[in-house]
Amino acid sequence: MIHTTVGNLGHLFVILSFVTALVATVAYLKTALGSKDLAETAQWRKLARVSFYVHGAAVAGVVVSLFWIIYNHYFEYHYAWSHSSLALPTHYMISCFWEGQEGSFLLWLFWNAILGVILTRTDKRWEAPMMTVFALVQAFLASMILGVVFGESFKIGSSPFLLLREAMPNTPIFATDPNFVPKDGNGLNPLLQNYWMVIHPPTLFLGFALTMVPFVYCIAGLWRNQPVEWIRPALPWSLLAAMVLGVGILMGGYWAYETLNFGGYWNWDPVENSVYVPWLVLVASIHTMLIAKRSSTGLKSAIILSVASFLLILYSTFLTRSGILGNASVHSFTDLGLSGQLLVYLLAFVGLAVVLMVRKWKLIPSDEEEASVYSKEFWLFIGATVICLASFQVLATTSIPVYNKVAELFGVVSNLALPADQIAHYNKFQVWFFVVIALLTGIGQYLWWRKVEKGNWRALMAPALLTLLVSAALITFGEIRNPVYMALLVAAVFALLANGTILLGIFRGNYRLSGGAVTHMGMALMLIGVLFSSGFSRVVSINNSGLMISRSEEFTKNDNKENKENVLLWLNQAERMGPYTLTYRGQRIEIRDVPGYVPRNWVEVIEGDFHGVALRDIEQNGKLYHKKGDTLALYPENIYYEVEYREANGKIFSLYPRAQVNEQMGLLSSPDIRRKPGKDLYTFVSSIPDPSSENQWSKTEEYKVSLKDTFFLNDYVAVLDNVARTNEVEGMQLGADDAAVKAMIRVLDKNQEYTLEPVFVIKDRMIGRKADTSEELGVRIQLNEINPQTGQFTFAVNRTQRDYVVMKAMEKPLINLLWIGTLILVIGFTMATVRRYREYHKMKTKAGRQAEMV
């Protein structure tokens, strides 16, 4: 059955959202332009509000319709089939909503609609000009999911409500069965099956949406010839946007740290950079907004940077969704044919902003005198300038694919390429930018609170001397030898101590004024965390065996780097690794209603069904969850590899790095992390046997052995200790006339002994044989014949690849300072946002009372 109603309803809501956004744009434009007839203006205002509210309701309708399709597994829809599957739990179905381009545009549209309604209710003074631009942005965003095609090639938007047969009309199955519905979908990308996928994208897109608020305030201020007045209402929104967007970026970093196996949280990927740059510019704009009331330089910079932060969001959208970064980034979306539309979207608002700024530039007041080097305005401006330079360096390199594409449009073949080692390239510049920024935060705070008088810098001597003492101690005990690391550490410690001193002074007066100092302290702690966790990360999985683990390019490049920094662990065989003794305990899976992990050989997995059959009773922590033969619901795709760590003091803990072999993406592994106050132990698997393939057994070999004879099994020494009668055979009921004997074979490994016990059975006058298999040894042995005359026993032996993992482990010192610094940064931004909002609310209330008195 094809569920067309919900799709048609969703598409209707998309069209309604687009049309009402256009109507709201026109109506708000008419309201902003004004009319001599106040009643007519009031009518236009009413139409504008109603249109925008209907737009918001229509967007909500689109959201509900699309989630209804995903949640109910309507795989006849291309979006549901592409991104979801029957096995996904509800929270991952939510993630499916915004995994695709259409869903992410819809999420952005949704947040914008909520913010637009809030603005219409809270700031009626600026409503008309501000919401004109706001509604126009919504019209452009709604057009991205419109899905209207004119002729054969002209397309506006990509609809999330396309049926599979509409999206893939040339698929043979639809020629024979137009109503074909797949039984299951492709499912969520394995790397996205993480709780961060549920909260990171909404946070990031809320940050995107919030950057538009200061932009529309700025445009409204220029439009109404009020180039200064827009600053005060826009400032709390800018602070909130910087906080939310920054948290979204850092969530992405933590997600990468937990999910990807490159051993860090930031890889300078072009898609990461395209969000990082607008955030830096937004932070710079906040600093210029603080000085805009006193300095024309600050005001002009605030206008430029507030506009630029939103335009850079649009530019990042173009980069990540046009397909232009397809070969440069693993995070880039594929091109859905919307690159031209995205470019129009970007250029339209660039043109609008530039034309308006040029026309209104002469209205911006000029300073009567230049800012003094002892003024807070001067140092804030210097800080904003350095932040902008840092952002420009990242932007200039990230945009190399764009330069090449532009050159191609003019018939020029460009050979520009992104740096081979992008991490080293960006780090060598960004470290020095942040050394300067950290120093400026300390100096700027002292000047802001008038601790430094003209011509007298003595107030900075105390934090400077204390910084040198603390830094010297840290450099000595931390054995820091790199001059760049030393410089960054000294700057971060100075920022921490200088802002801490200011903070103590503020707390004695009014703690509500301390948002800036708290934010700067958070940034300083983050820098120290980044310095130690990245600069002094230590690989502990050193291969001391002298053997090459793999001859693949991935392991042999860079002078056999990965061969040297990975260890090979055989199942249940202990190996020494740094301060730990490691033992690989086997493959584990997750059963949905059973806590923790269970051995994979406890369950027969039904491939493609996300279910399995229990091969034994499933118990955890003394509680029976399933009996042998029960059908179980499994979490899909991932296999966990239990690695037991034994410390020198005898303490034992286990880590469970996960991996899966994906047909399209190869080995996908995610780390497991042991978190301690001073450092993290970060473990992931680099190579595994294919978990989906069955063991390939060697050709059968026969051994004729007498009691107490020694022979070799798969390079191990084996001894036939005994052959004795047994009354119990697993999985078999013996009768009174039946007989069974069990051989006891002792296998000697270098670290331990194993016992194999194959059984020979005579049941109902028929011969049966039950082999015994050792996964640790990679041996299967069967008792085939018993010769009472010679006293010899014939054994059939097969060999296979033993189970193993190749794993890498690293220690990340002081990484918790990065996460603690992030929390402090958020607290500081929150305090500053609340303070600036209260200031504006108080001013607005006072202005309203004065107007009533007049």
Q: What report would you give on this structure?
A:
The structure is a single chain. A hairpin with a 2-residue loop joins strand 5 and strand 6. The mean pLDDT is 87. This protein has 21 helices and 29 strands. The strands form seven sheets. Strands 5, 6, 7, 13, 14, 15 and 16 form a seven-stranded antiparallel β-sheet that branches. Strands 20, 21, 22, 23, 24 and 25 form a six-stranded antiparallel β-sheet that branches. With 854 residues, it is of the alpha+beta class.
Compute the average pLDDT.
Answer: 87
Largest sheet: 7 strands, antiparallel
Give Rg in angstroms: 33 Å
Structure annotation, total helices = 21
Organism: Nibrella saemangeumensis
Domain Cytochrome c assembly protein: 101-322
Transmembrane segments: 12-29, 50-71, 103-120, 132-151, 204-223, 235-256, 276-292, 299-318, 338-358, 378-396, 429-448, 460-478, 484-506, 518-536, 814-834
Family: Belongs to the CcmF/CycK/Ccl1/NrfE/CcsA family.
Attribute tags:
854 residues, alpha+beta, seven-stranded antiparallel beta sheet, six-stranded antiparallel beta sheet, 21 helices, 29 strands, globular
What would you say about this model in short?
Keywords: Cytochrome c-type biogenesis, Membrane, Transmembrane, Transmembrane helix. With 854 residues, the protein is of the alpha+beta class. It is globular and about 120 Å long.
Compile the SSE list and pairings.
Blueprint lengths: L3 H30 L4 H34 L6 H6 L6 H8 L3 H22 L4 H17 L4 E3 L3 E3 L7 H4 L4 H5 L18 H29 L7 H29 L10 H22 L4 H26 L17 H22 L15 H23 L1 H10 L12 H27 L12 H17 L5 H27 L5 H21 L2 E2 L13 H12 L2 E4 L4 E3 L2 E10 L8 E2 L3 E4 L4 E4 L3 E3 L2 E4 L4 E3 L5 E9 L4 E4 L2 E5 L3 E5 L1 E4 L3 E9 L13 E6 L3 E4 L2 E10 L13 E10 L4 E4 L2 E5 L2 E5 L1 E3 L4 E9 L4 E8 L4 E10 L1 H39 L1
Antiparallel strand pairs: 1-2, 3-29, 4-29, 5-6, 6-7, 6-13, 8-9, 9-12, 10-11, 13-14, 13-15, 15-16, 17-18, 18-29, 19-28, 20-21, 21-22, 22-23, 22-24, 24-25, 26-27, 27-28
Helix pairs in contact: 1-2, 1-6, 2-4, 2-5, 5-6, 5-9, 6-9, 9-10, 9-12, 10-11, 10-21, 11-12, 11-14, 12-13, 14-16, 16-18, 16-19, 17-18, 18-19, 19-21
